[in-house]
Amino acid sequence: MKRIVISLAILALLIAAGIMLNSRPKPLPPEVSADVAEEFDLWKKQFHLGDIDRAERLTLQHLTERDMRQRIREAQLEEAQIEKQMKPISEAEARAWYAAHREELHLPVLHRVSHLFLTRHQPKKPDRSAEMRAIHQKLKSGTDFAILVSKHSEDARSKSLGGDLGWLRAKRMPSDFMAHVEKLRVGEISAPLETKLGWHLLRVTERREARLPSFEEVRQEIEALLDLAAREQLLPRK
After folding, report:
1. Treating both helix axes as pointing N-terminal to C-terminal, what angle do 215-234 and 91-100 enclose, rounded to 10 degrees?
2. Helix axes 65-85, 215-234, angle to 10 degrees
3. In whole angstroms, what is the distance from residue 123 CA to residue 130 CA?
4. Angle at 37 between CA 1 and CA 84, to 5 degrees
5. What is the torsional sign of CA 131, 137, 138, 144?
6. With a cut of 70, which residues of the chain have pLDDT below it?
């Protein structure tokens, strides 16, 4: 039998539905019984402060360890029943979903960007323009971009990475910043520029044009999504 791992969502649904803890237990298949014991042990181990912490948490929920074991047991039985009814997602089903959601699957233009950054949140330096121009002059004189970043950039997250910000898309970045990025050719370093964040030297290292991924690229994600939807349909309505 496929290994059944209790999901927190299902456990929450069962708790919310108010399972009759004193009802007569249903007989458990041996493999489910083993899963209950394992899941109960995992539940106990999450209380790093030990038995007292676990007991206090249960008291707050008006539960005992026996109650919790029963709830885990019921959840495992529900999952076992769902597993019996599940059928593999067919390629035809996945392709149909792909065809119906093509617009949603389109990948936007992506830019891989590095920058050298001077913040505007420096009370003693309200205008960093001259400072950035001096750094830019060093770049023009042949100093490596990564060296200048390591020495001058005030973006702690990217400084040790040569200024690399990773892959960026327009919707997730400030519009004034992306307006400059979109004008740069791959490999080109910008002149000093100012945005709402501060002063930058930008370099676009790679660019990926907008495209629709192939079915094979997203097949696993589609099948996982359809599998989850099918399982949710099989959840008991309490």
Report:
1. 100
2. 120
3. 16
4. 25
5. positive
6. 1-33, 82, 236-238
Confirm if 169 and 109 have CB atoms less than 8 A apart: yes
- Strand duo 193-194 + 198-208: pairing: antiparallel
Residue 203 phi, psi dihedral angles, 5° rounding: -135, 125
d(CA 152, CA 162): 11
230: buried, middle or exposed (CB in 10 Å: 19+, 13-18, 0-12)? middle
pTM score, two decimals? 0.57
φ/ψ bin of 162: left (φ > 0), alpha (ψ from -120 to 50), beta (otherwise): left
Type of residue at 140: K
Distance, CA of 162 to CA of 119 (rounded, Å): 17
Contacts of 157 (CB under 8 A, 6+ apart): none
**CA distance to 49, 140, 157, 207, per residue, from 204 (Å):** 49, 17, 18, 7
Return d(Cα 187, Cα 210) in angstroms, integer.
19
- Token pair listed for 62: 């008006």
Task: Give the tokens for residue 134.
Answer: 């001096």
Structure tokens at 100: 């119906």
Distance CA 168, CA 207 (A): 9
Output the six-digit token pair for 171: 């919707």
Q: Which tokens belong to 26?
A: 């249903």
